Prior knowledge:
- The strands form two sheets. Strands 4-3-5-6-7 form a five-stranded mixed β-sheet, sandwiched between helices. A two-stranded antiparallel sheet has the order 1-2.
- By secondary structure, the protein is of the alpha/beta class.
- The chain is built from six helices and seven strands; from the N terminus they run E-E-H-E-E-H-E-H-E-H-E-H-H.
- It has a single domain (22-161), classed as Cytidine Deaminase, domain 2 (3-Layer(aba) Sandwich).
Amino acid sequence: MSFFICTLNLLKGQGFYLKIRTDIDFMREALMLASQAKDKVGHDPLVGVVFTKNRHVITKGFHEKLFGLHAEFSAFKEQDFDVEGSTVYVTLEPCAHDDYFPSCAQFLIRKKVKKVVIASLDPNPIENGDGVQLLKKAGIEVVTGLMDAENRLLNLNYFERFK
Length: 163
């Protein structure tokens, strides 16, 4: 279980309240980002990513178009952020293979992230869990299955292709 870091917020005239951002909140945000690419990525999956540190968002992105940047790279297209030691929430297992783009898993390793939370493993046999294995081999903590059902529903056509 993740430890929650609370943010103290002051409401005008209403005193204090605590807002706790959970793993589910961040994954929900990644899923919402992914959904923005509906009808824009062709046969590719809808993928969103949120990079966080101390329960605050550092950067985020999504796979925006067919043959476009993968979500992990998209989060850095405007600016290079320091994400060392961060937790990453991504809707689909980061790719391990190099084809049109470099490996997303290797990118996360180079960025020295601490933990990667993945909604769904990639059903594409090219991946076959290789992204998760690369991350683990590099000493990165990996959690899978958070909001898997929601991601599978969002990417129904993609998951059906690999049944």
